[in-house]
Specification:
This protein is mostly helical and 101 residues long. 33% of the residues lie in helices and 0% in strands.
Length: 101
């Protein structure tokens, strides 16, 4: 869309481009000819110093310990199923055996 490129050129030029775009005549209205003022603000752009990317830290797999899944304790998933199974409510049945059993 050419409208954003001519917004800095003035209201009349941008209105004309928007009108032409609405009609579908984008090829008939080159935006470079409509612009009478420079698009820049007149100030030179600030120079940014290129900062190199820091070196990635080395990852040591021997220090990674996920004890939650590799240690047996009172919070293990299967323990909670065994403890809570006596509180489980019977599920309604249609009277016929399940296809999974």
């Amino acid at each position: 869309m050419a409208a954003p490129s001519v917004l800095g050129c003035g209201r009349a030029a941008s209105r004309k481009v928007l009108r032409l775009e609405a009609r579908g005549l984008q090829a008939a209205a080159p935006t470079a000819e409509l612009c009478t003022k420079p698009a820049g603000s007149g100030k030179p752009p600030k120079k940014t110093t290129a900062v190199g990317e820091p070196a990635p830290e080395e990852f040591d797999n021997s220090t990674y310990k996920n004890l939650q899944h590799h240690e047996y304790n009172i919070y293990t998933f299967f323990d909670s199923i065994a403890v809570l199974s006596k509180f489980r409510q019977p599920q309604p049945s249609s009277g016929r055996p399940s296809p999974r059993h």
